[in-house]
Amino acid sequence: MNHEIARSILMHWEREAAIDAAVDTPGHSKAFAKRALGLLECTTPDDFVRELRSRFSIYPDDELVSWFSRSPPGDLLNFKAFLRAALELNEPAGG
Q1: Helices 73-87 and 2-14, interaxial angle, to 10°?
Q2: Using CA of residue 27, residue 28, residue 33, residue 36, what is the dihedral sign?
Q3: Nearest CA to 15 among 34, 3, 33?
């Protein structure tokens, strides 16, 4: 289950504009990421990235691990910025 949640966070980052537009809710992707990070018990972007490389990857050739090797250098920084923004969101009670 954690593997699928982690994949969903990556997908929401990669397709943020399209997802937010599809549900007509700016910030939807970040709100999703915030809730998902909570389920995974990750409190910082570095927690998630560290766990992505170990605990959330379940196969030797897992796409979660290979994501880092096939992505442009700036992607990890952009991804961490997305996670940081998600974690800083203030959502109403019941989110």
Answers
A1: 100
A2: positive
A3: 33
Residue with tokens 């096939």: 70
- Residue 62, phi-psi category: left (phi > 0), alpha (psi -120 to 50), beta (remainder): beta
Q: Are 49 and 80 within 8 A, CB to CB?
A: yes
- Single-letter residue type at 13: W
Condensed to tens digits (0 to 9), the pLDDT of residues 40-63 reads: 999 999 999 888 877 777 666 667
Query: Hey, what amino acid is at 28?
Result: H
Angle between helices 45-52 and 73-87 (to 10 degrees): 130
Mean pLDDT of the chain: 86
Render pLDDT for 27-38 as a digit per residue (tens, 0 to 9).
999 999 999 999
